[in-house]
Amino acid sequence: MTRVAFVTGGTRGIGKAITARLKASGYKVAAGYAGNEVAAKACAKELGVMIVKGNVSSFTDCAEAVKEVEKELGPIDTLVNNAGITRDAMLHKMTEEQWVEVIQVNMASIFNMTRNVIEGMRERGFGRIVNISSINGQKGQMGQSNYSAAKAGMIGFTKSVAQENAKKGITVNAICPGYIDTEMVAAVPKNVLDSIIAQIPVGRLGRAEEIARCVAFLSSEEAGFITGATLTVNGGQYITG
Length: 241
Ligand code: CAA
Description:
This protein is of the alpha/beta class. It has helices spanning 13-24, 37-47, 59-73, 96-124, 135-139, 145-165, 183-186, 190-197, 208-219, and strands spanning 4-7, 28-33, 50-53, 78-81, 127-132, 170-177, 230-233. The termini are far apart.
């Protein structure tokens, strides 16, 4: 049976690698995007996937996107909450706008998306939800009080929703990538990034495909006994118990 996956922020960076990997694994995939039409169209053409425009901060946009995807591809079995942004600043310099934007896009979004697919998954008795959190939600990071708070919030959400839906064949897990070779990480000032790379025992940035493999694993039928888990994928930069 062909499964249907929706990957938010699925046309660039880690999200694009997830879209590609799920498509290669035989899923029908819809990739969400917020506004970069050029990247989205290129992704659709390159990978042969559906693209859906919408703002994950908006409950209404998410409801409409889910409807659109389900009409075209069928019921969503796998949701990957990947969309995320940074607005880095030390707290004493952070504006309310930088705080609100990151909390809305990175954390409120997981309610907006998950709420719109969870009832269908419960009715059908199957679902896979993978939330892309971050190493910085686990350990904190200078300049990222907004981002770290949102990413830590995703982990709490994951554990609660996992418990609520375990009996319905739905698993809910979080992945915490470390520093991955994407545009987002490339935007970190070079001297700061060099000092971060020096703290990664594996000695390099991660690759988006390395996160995508984990998503494919957690989304598989065989991973049905893994729920509420946090999978740490950071080259040894932060080792949790
Ligand atoms: N470790 C150690 N010291 C740090 C530091 C760090 N990670 N970040 C900043 N500092 C130090 C600076 O060296 C500086 O020290 P001095 O005053 O002694 O020179 C001091 O803190 C102030 O730093 P800045 O002058 O850079 O302050 P700023 O206000 O201009 O900028 C900042 C601060 C915006 C936080 C900037 O340092 C920055 O962008 N840091 C990167 C934050 C980061 O890691 N973001 C991750 C983005 S990628 C991502 O989020 C994906 C993921 O999930 C991992």
